[in-house]
Amino acid sequence: MKKKLLALVCALALTVSLVGCALSTPDTVGKIGDFEVTSGLYLLAQYDAYQQAAQLADSEQDTSKVNSFLKATITTDADTGETAVVKDYVAQKTLETLQTLAAVDARFTELGGELTEEQKSAADSYAQQLMDNYGDAYTANGIGLETLKLFQQLQYKQVLLLDLVYGKDGETPVEDGELTEHLDSQMYELAYVNIPLYNTSTFVFASDDQKAEMLQLAQQAATAANLMDYENVEDQVSALHAAAQSALPDIYAVLDATPSDDASSVQTELLTESDLTSTFTQDGAADAVRGLVYGEAAAVQYNGYSVILMMRIDPLQVSTLDALRSQILSDMKGEELNDALAAYGAQLDSTLSSSAMSKLPAAKIVNATSATSANSANS
Questions:
Q1: Which of 108, 265, 292, 305 is 20 to 30 Å from the Cα of 90, by its Cα?
Q2: With 0-12 CB in 10 A as exposed, 13-18 as middle and 19+ as buried, what is 19?
Q3: pLDDT digits (tens, 9 = 90+) for 186-220
């Protein structure tokens, strides 16, 4: 009898526990327009908003202590000095993200967009990669694979919206002449060879004098490339490769090193102004790129540990305008589209439930640092 009674008590306890979980975690938190906001998507938007806040924390604020950090104040605009309480910032950013996602879904449907099976598969595959790499953090915060799949499909739709709005047959198409002008004046196709300012075997960094010597040798290689004759972009890349191949042994020898067989291999990349600002961080490095004409080579130290031997080349000799259209539109119109989506989402009718959202509070966020600590403690 005691065993039966104990089993009954345990069963009742389990039932109450399961019911409690079901009641405390709603399937959805409501709608924005016709877009249903699942609990998982809400938690993902909230988690992302918290990470944005964490990026703005000062060195004395511990973002792994979620409850205390939510009460803290962060500077949200360094230029104006504007501040916000983290809890309010997270709530606002969560709502803005959900509104934008709702706008993406609505505008994509409105403009006749439809994801192909291949595109859905690509989005789902990337979602699986995210889960494989960061599953512990997502799971700790109530975010599952299906939520990541939904989010990645929405991200895919947002990318495709650029063409639906600004493409050749888009709502407000951008003319080819405008694309070409932007490509010429605001984007930079570089052929380049990266030269590390450290010994690649011992990882000993160059001294200031050694850096100066290596840069001077690289600049001599750029001068040699500029003196060569070439008729097309293939000749330009070959000239840069030949100059690098000739100069690298002496450059590496400054650090008692030898270049690998592929050290002089030339890579190409199309950069935006944003890329220049974030990548060419040494004083004057970004301006050196901006000052290059097509077919001109130069060498600069572009960060604390690398010199780049580079040549600016005409992107339309490497590819076609149609092939580059999406990339140009992204740089040219991406911010404009984001602003338009934010405004569109903000004016959609919202039936988000305060009661449902209150059951998914930011205070329950497990930040990556604390999640790692917890996992380490339990292992």
A1: 108
A2: exposed
A3: 999 999 999 999 999 999 999 999 999 999 999 99
pTM: 0.83
C-alpha 139 chain-centroid distance: 22
Domain count, the chain: 2
Closest CA relative to residue 308, chosen from 272, 268, 273: 268
CB 152 within 8 A of CB 127: yes
Q: DSSP labels for 260-322?
A: -TTTT--EEEEEEHHHHHHH--STTHHHHHHTPPTT-EEEEEEETTEEEEEEEE-HHHHS-HH
In a domain, 227, yes or no: yes
Helices and strands counted in the chain (H then E): 15, 8
User: Measuring CA to CA, how many Å separate 180 from each of 184, 223, 269, 314, 315?
Assistant: 6, 29, 17, 11, 10
Same domain, 161 and 105: yes
How is residue 371 written in tokens?
């999640």
Tell me the residue range of the domain where 256 lies.
182-318
